Amino acid sequence: MPMVKPSRFARWFGRTALRLTGWRVVGEFPDVPKLVMIVAPHSSNWDGFLGFAVKFAVGFEVRVMGKTQLFWWPLGPLLRKLGGIPLDRKSPRGVVEQAVALIRQAPRMWYVITPEGTRKRVEKWKVGFWKIAHGAEIPIFPVYFDYPSRTVGLGPLFHTSADMHADIAAIRTWYRPWRGKHRDTL
């Protein structure tokens, strides 16, 4: 697992934030150098706060993809420091190719993405997370935020096959029991 240099304040902040809000983390983090972590359901801006609280509490390093428009001053430098990667969705290379190239260049990287691509309810997930994992030949690590039970859950590693639609259907089925702040996952 990619770890960051220990910061007592960051660990304290993350653990305190989780404790004060009543959230807990269940499951085990895998010991692999590279993966695509998908987090769902993503239905609230609070999801980002929870994600960073877990990141600080545990002390692992993640890279979070965000649209270039989020990385303006003064937010941009802070987002980069926290692991944000600005990706240009209008680039001729495409987002998937940019992400795969970044992952291949790094000796270790946990790359976080929300499969819905938005906080709004969607019928279909974006397939970029699968294409990135498949293209970089790394596993997918599903993580959920279940608001009714205030649980951040860590799932099993999922390795892509040649059938993208079957893989995504299986992952969505795994997510079915958990609810976001404002809606169900599916």
From TrEMBL:
Domain of life, per lineage: Bacteria
One Pfam entry name: Acyltransferase
Pathway where it operates: Lipid metabolism
SMART domains reported in the protein's UniProt record: PlsC
Family annotation (InterPro entries): Plipid/glycerol_acylTrfase
GO biological process: phosphatidic acid biosynthetic process
Domain Phospholipid/glycerol acyltransferase: 36-148
UniProt name for this protein: Acyltransferase
